Amino acid sequence: MRLKIYGILAAVALLSACASGPEATDTTAGGGSVADAKPVETYTAPLGTTATVAPGSQEDLVANVGDRVFFGFDQFTLDGKSRSVLDKQAAWLSANPSVIVTIQGHCDERGTREYNLALGERRANAAKDYLVQLGVNPNRIKTISYGKERPVALGSSDSAWAQNRRSVTVVGNVGS
Amino acid sequence: MVLGIIKTTKNWFFCALFLLTAVSPSHAELRIDITQGSVKPMPIAVADLGGQSGDEQKFGRDIARVIATDLERSGLFKAVDRDAFIQSADALETLPRFGDWRIINAQALVQGRAKLVPDGRLRVEFRLWDVVAETQMVGLAYFTIPDNWRRVAHIISDAIYKRITGESGYFDTRIVYIAESGPADRRKKRLAIMDQDGANHRFLTDGSSLVLTPRFSPELQEITYLSYFGNLPRVYIFNIDTGRQEVLGDFPGMTFAPRFSPGGKEVIISMAKGGNSDIYTMDLRTRKVTQLTFHSAIDTSASFSPDAAKIVFNSDRGGTQQLYVMTAAGKSVRRISYGKGRYATPVWSPRGDLIAFTKIHRGRFFIGVMRPDGSGERLLAEDFLVESPTWAPNGRVLMFFRQSKSTADGKGGRSRLFSVDLTGQNLREIITPIDASDPAWSPLIP
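Structure tokens for the assembled complex are given below, as produced in the milestone run.
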């Protein structure tokens, strides 16, 4: 029952996402915003071309689709940019029907540890719920929250925090 | 002199020494009121305990050093410089020459002796003297295996603290915490345990799995904590005596934020299901699971009141993180935090009179306390990031961790443990071998 309510909440969130974009809280003078945030974990194909990337692999997902979406401070709503990344992920999952993924939910360091574990769980599930709405079989998507334990960008800065408030789709089953 | 046996346990027993209990009527009793904000530390002389053999003298010296350090770190006492002592430890054996101690401004004196008895045990006796009134305030003797000498010292410190403040001490306790190393994006975290003064430090896990938020059981042999073993974040129970780790229950989603109930028969946890976190209890004997909150908001960081009748927790059901109190059955939920900012990680004091919390306001973090009805908020510490208060068993001291800012090249971000008195005075770092977070203070060791 709560799953259903959650789905409705996520749908409402999608409709109103533009009003709560992370840019509003994250910009600093000369600093980065979510729009500028680039994945730090980039994969380079051995021969410098994407042609050698195996379809359905993590490298394929990162290079040709985008493995992550970003969130505002203490938010788990998906903005237009996030939805377009997830739209592409849904298409990619459809094109690679044997792939199982785990969505990791992450937070910045500006919250308390236990609350951030719950917030990371919300972010991972917001991304999962959106993919499921697009027709991806929920059994193909695991989730795991890391709270503030696994930042991708180092440093106590607005731009690092913006990069760390993320969900990351990872090929493989490593969650629950 | 009368020796009265008060208590026996496996390795030891102790006796009360009654001697010279006459009280001088002209002198108010030596006493520290620890409810006052700024206490002038009481000068106390801790003489090396006397002994016959070299071994006994070494035990006597080491025990006296630990007692002096304990008392000084409480902020309530100042140990008089031992170089100023006039009367020798040997001469003290008969009776203190109080004039010798008054002249170096000691108000209280601790003396005693250490003796290795023929069965191999160590006998330690001490007396606390009111130097002005020239009376004995307390005198006790303990038998123990010699390896336990530090615990005897802490037990003596607790006895002195109790006699002078009227409150139970907290020196014979341990701290479990998370030891941290490595860069922030690949931080290695291990369960670690130590005495409250940092001695007897040891790691309990090897760092192969991420571990977080340990808490002591009231019975002390067990710790509940969160482990990412097998990439499944679940609450575990760690048995300190056997080293055995056991997952708590069989839950379909992440379980986290565990705390034991006051009697130790239940663990209260949060579980995430479909992205939503609610609060549950699990009976450790019957394995019965009870869901206490049913809300689409985040409900987590639950903590029982010491009488187990109520639970305080953290929820964003009102829009942002705030503190709520409900009955142990999950009824009558009522918000208690109404100050500016977000409130998190509530922990009920062992005395029941206060709730400690982490507060986030305008990009700063605070450790504070409020009464269980939300009134009387006081902030005790503030920094870039301070989090996770834990109470000393007497409800007079809090410990928490402080993490510094880091830079983009990975420098900084040091994490350290600190203690602070409930008055906001006496902020002190607890020295750990490497970075530290998520401290949990044990009850007094029985």
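Residues 1-11, 18-25 of chain B have pLDDT under 50 and may be disordered. Residues 312 and 332 of chain B are 12 Å apart (CA to CA). Further analysis is deferred to the final report.
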